[in-house]
Amino acid sequence: MIANYHTHTKRCHHAKGEDEQYVRAAIKAGLEIIGFSDHGPWPYEDFASTIRMTVDEAQDYIDSVRKLREKYKDKIEIRLGFEWEYFPQHLEWLKKFSEDNKLDYIILGHHYVPYEIGGEYTGRIHTPQGLVRYCGNMTDAINSGAFTYVAHPDLFMREYEVFDDTAREISEKICVAAKEKGLPLEYNVLGLRKSAKAGRELYPHSEFWKIAKNVGNKVIIGIDAHSPKHITDARFIRQAETYLEKNGFEIIEKL
Prior knowledge:
By secondary structure, the chain is α/β, with parallel strands linked by helices. The chain has helices spanning 19-28, 58-71, 91-100, 128-143, 157-160, 165-181, 189-198, 206-215, 228-232, 234-246, and strands at 3-4, 33-39, 77-84, 105-108, 112-113, 120-121, 149-150, 185-188, 219-222. It has 10 helices and 9 strands. α1 links the parallel β1 and β2. It is globular.
């Protein structure tokens, strides 16, 4: 692994460590590229999210990444990105924010269906109807042209537990949509870590990835780092590499 584009910061309220610690960890791990992609802000009114920075806090994040890019330019390449959901009511705002701030990439991490306010968390979907709603949002997001790649597309298996016919059907639709639009799917290392802690397969889920292999999706490995230690902990990164190489996936190393 030579690049990780899925890196959070403490601004999202559930990650820890200073921005520069992530950069130093990436250099120590031998990475050539580290991309910051903290949870992007939304122009909410009268709602304070507990899992993302505010619009007013975004400039500090952007300035920090750019300063680190200059400071470490001779040691590692640093990219500026965000991880966002697909909320169609904010799509034009997202595109303008991206253009105004000259972002390098945007990860699709669809955590709420259909919206953060009053919506359902993707990792707590328990019904086939919830999966169908998630699939509709995901395919619309992929087709929107706003995103660079799809993070943890099988996050829905965190609590769904049984990979049933509905899970199979919506997985195929998501994989086909991503294939047609040329968006890589992310094999999420944090999910491997959570699966090991839970003592059962959560996500990445093998049944989903069998479908992705049959469809012919390109894959990118994302550490989904919420601590600098996640970048230097090679155990789960190597587990991801081994699985993908063994099963003959085309791995995207650089965006």
